Amino acid sequence: MYGGDEVSAIVIDLGSHTCKAGYAGEDAPKAVFPSVVGSIDQAGAVEDIKPERDSEPVPDSKNGIRSFDSEKTKSKRKLYVGSQALGYRRDHMEVISPIRDGVVVDWDVVDKIWDHAFRERLLIDPKEHPMLLAEPSSNVPQQRERAAELMFESYKVPALFLAKNAVLTSFASGRATSLVVDSGGGSTTVAAVHDGFVLQKAVSSSPIGGEFLSECMMKSLESKGIVLKPRYSFKRKEIRPGEFQSIDLDFPNTTESYRLYCQKLIASDIKECVCRAPDTAYDESAYANIPMTSYELPDGQTIEIGADRFKIPDILFNPSLVQTIPGMESFNDPAAYRGLPQMVIESINKCDVDIRRELFSSILLAGGTASMQQLKERLEKDLMEEAPQAARVKVLASGNATERRFSVWIGGSILASLGSFQQMWFSKAEYEEHGVSYIQRKCP
């Protein structure tokens, strides 16, 4: 038994946009920070700031002293994790994401992100806490084994459990069977959950997520001549009391990826502030003379946003709209991108006939992009038009935007603190006895 009141489990949900970490049993994650990191190749970069606290050598019982950064990464690149470290502009700093299409492509970075979550944010020793990790619904066995190996070998955790995102979202809303529509930063995934298990044949995903929409917003504004100036690229000077003038600063060594990262932050804030899903399919003529909404950019200029407020969210329902946005014409393969209602119907049709009815009546919305205003109402309306006559369509979404954003984490928090769950952990002893592949049996 690892649970109980003395030591609570740690729940980590590493998404494509943000990493959420915290204690099981709490109602929101304690640490939420971007899951991209800044990376500087040590060869060309000059060390301009003092080494971070977590890269000091640490005494280790086995081999005297070892350093956190493996020697290989130390000579090659320095990684900066967390919104504060990323907010500081450094020369030659590239912004890299360890996750592409829901699959981890860079384990060094993931290791660093976990390390930051444990030691900098939660201030715990991972040796003392069992870990519950959320994983994508269609995760492959190699990825799961790699995660388990890292947790047991690098962090020496006492026990581990890997749970599927869709299952955790289902638990967060107290259901064992549901259809989970998880629209996050990097992609949108629709997965059917039955009796607490993901039906693998009915998982479908699309690369349209929050970051894709932010990019559309950015390109659309640029086509109107509005430049999003990142915070580091100007300083404001007071010319008269209360009147400011912004002066451009020039940093020739700033990387393209860092500039884009900063611009996307602004675009994403604009999207969150002014966008809402239109009640009916977007139509250029109907929205041509819609009232404008103003938004103040960091450099003080105020911009007016009109039809884009509705057009950009509608890409979720009608991906072919992407082609009407200047600069995004390269996404011209409409077959690869499907709208939300089509993905939902497709997913349900791949399930057994006898559970389809139940799935139609419990469609759960989760993820940051799903917190958009009017999204639930619009999805319900579209599905009612496309679903079979007999089906009773019900789209459920927590009224609280925070709960929608963190539903995967909250489900993990509920699961890991249940008394009946405590015998499910994959323990260190089992790992040493059966090897890493045993995780496939312990965590279905």
TrEMBL record:
What family is this?
Belongs to the actin family. ARP4 subfamily.
Check the record and name the Pfam families matching this protein: Actin
Q: Which domain of life is it from?
A: Eukaryota
Keywords from the UniProt entry = Chromatin regulator, Cytoplasm, Developmental protein, Nucleus
An example Gene Ontology CC term for this record: cytoplasm
Listed under GO biological process in this entry are:
chromatin organization
Annotated function: Involved in several developmental processes including organization of plant organs, flowering time, anther development, flower senescence and fertility, probably by regulating the chromatin structure.
Annotated gene: LOC120275601
Q: What is its main location?
A: cytoplasm
- Residue ranges, annotated region (Disordered): 50-70
InterPro entries cross-referenced by the UniProt entry: Actin, ATPase_NBD
Does this UniProt record's set of keywords contain Iron? no
Q: What is this protein called?
A: Actin-related protein 4
What does the UniProt entry say about where the protein is found?
A: Cytoplasm; Nucleus
